[in-house]
From TrEMBL:
GO molecular-function terms, A-Z: ATP binding; phosphoribulokinase activity; protein homodimerization activity
Biological or metabolic pathway of the protein: Carbohydrate biosynthesis; Calvin cycle
Residues annotated as domain Phosphoribulokinase/uridine kinase: 64-262
Database matches in Gene3D superfamilies: P-loop containing nucleotide triphosphate hydrolases
Species this chain originates from: Lupinus luteus (European yellow lupine)
Record has Cell membrane as a keyword: no
Subcellular location: Plastid, Chloroplast
The reaction(s) this protein catalyses: D-ribulose 5-phosphate + ATP = D-ribulose 1,5-bisphosphate + ADP + H(+)
Protein name: Phosphoribulokinase
Record keywords: ATP-binding, Calvin cycle, Chloroplast, Disulfide bond, Kinase, Nucleotide-binding, Photosynthesis, Plastid, Transferase, Transit peptide
Length: 408
């Protein structure tokens, strides 16, 4: 026999979630009544059931951004550029696990989806699966926790320890203004994908990916060239099957390719980068060069832009991408002087900057970041500004909703 005690209170409309002791699931509902606790009688003893009721104001809902890419493709650098746009330094949780993958700033919280590995390193080896395989990941828990955070509810998120390869005890994640979920699978599960307010895919060509991975894993992690090649080849089938298809769902894709300015270039030092922007995305308007909707080819080198060999070339125009209408801005080559970037910035429109020269300022601020002299840094910075505008528009629309409802 069980009894439920209910206390009522007048409050703003809330999102409430019940966490039961036998399930990880959060049960959500909208109400002006708050259930405080339940009791039950067992063996003539009254026992309080440990049901946890958490409520959050509906107008405080977190904006969720998804960033997908393979390992070693620049996600960390992109995160640093993005959090910088919002202000504050992204740091690991204070006083927590030193091996935490989470980064927290004044406005944003970045969580690594590796934390939702259901198998540790040994378990994956025993089962013969890679971390890219969906069978090695807990998408149910990922969905439940991202949804809870989006609705303003704190969660105990697991931690995958990249040093030991083990699953560490969980850490508390409180709802931020902006939650960024970055990793291999942010758009793989349709339920998680539907929670995203905006999504980005970093699409690095095989040639460039190989060069980057050699630089990172040999210089920073002490891996041999042979082991890096073997790792790439072992991951490729799963990458093609589970990671790469996610780019069809992305609102923006940053595609990194070998240069076309140098015939038969094999060094991979000069890059051709394309910013592919989906049309018709709510709260997002694509960046364009010179004239919206036109097809443009532009070589800006000359009196106002210093360009050493092989120069710089920009292009812009409408196109189709996985059946969607898109606008593409392309940069091939690299800058000699970042302070001259403002000349290029002045010819780009819809940048969502707060003031003239903000893109150049952000690039100069992080001149030591990888890609700051080419299109990867430029387009990552621009997407960061677009996400800031998207966040501000979402917040503004939510604040207007109660006013419109009151007038109705």
């Amino acid at each position: 026999m069980a009894a439920c005690t209910v206390y009522s209170t007048q409050s703003l409309k809330t999102n409430c979630f019940i966490s039961t002791p036998s399930s990880k699931t959060h049960y959500g509902f909208h109400h002006k009544q708050i259930v405080l606790y339940t009791t039950s009688k067992r063996h003539n003893k009254r026992v309080n059931n440990p049901y946890v009721i958490t409520c959050a104001a509906s107008d405080s809902q977190t904006v969720v951004i998804g960033l997908a890419a393979d390992s070693g493709c620049g996600k960390s650098t992109f995160m640093r550029r993005l959090t910088s746009v919002f202000g504050g330094t992204a740091e690991p949780p204070r006083g927590g696990n030193p091996d935490s993958n989470t980064l927290i700033s004044d406005t944003t919280t970045v969580i690594c989806l590796d934390d939702y590995h259901s198998l540790d390193r040994t378990g994956r080896k025993e089962k013969g699966v890679t971390a890219l395989d969906p069978r090695a990941n807990d998408f149910d828990l990922m969905y439940e926790q991202v949804k809870a955070i989006k609705d303003g509810v704190s969660v105990q998120k697991p931690i995958y320890n990249h040093v030991t390869g083990l699953l560490d005890p969980p850490e508390l994640i409180k709802p931020p203004k902006i939650l960024v979920i970055e990793g291999l699978h942010p758009m793989y599960d349709a339920r998680v994908r539907d929670l995203l307010d905006f999504s980005i895919y970093l699409d690095i060509s095989n040639e460039v990916k190989f060069a980057w991975k050699i630089q990172r894993d040999m210089a920073e992690r002490g891996h041999s060239l042979e082991s890096i090649k073997a790792s790439i080849e072992a991951r490729k089938p799963d990458f093609d099957a589970y990671i790469d298809p996610q780019k069809q769902y992305a609102d923006a894709v940053i595609e990194v390719l070998p240069t076309e300015l140098i015939p038969d270039d094999n060094e991979g030092k000069i890059l051709r980068v394309r910013l592919i922007q989906k049309e018709g995305v709510k709260n997002f308007s694509p960046v364009y060069l010179f004239d919206d909707g036109s097809t443009i080819s532009w070589i800006p080198c000359g009196r106002k832009l210093t360009c050493s060999y092989p120069g710089i070339k920009f292009a812009y125009g409408p196109d189709a991408y996985f059946g969607n209408e898109v606008s593409i801005v392309e940069m091939d080559g690299q800058f000699d002087r970042l302070d001259e970037l403002i000349y290029v910035e002045s010819h780009l429109s819809n940048l969502s900057s707060k003031f003239y020269g903000e893109v150049t300022q952000q690039m100069l601020k992080h001149a030591d970041f990888p890609g700051s002299n080419n299109g990867t840094g430029l387009f990552q910075t621009i997407v960061g500004l677009k996400i800031r505008e998207l966040y501000e528009q979402i917040v503004a629309s939510r604040s207007e909703s109660p006013v419109k409802a009151a007038k109705a």
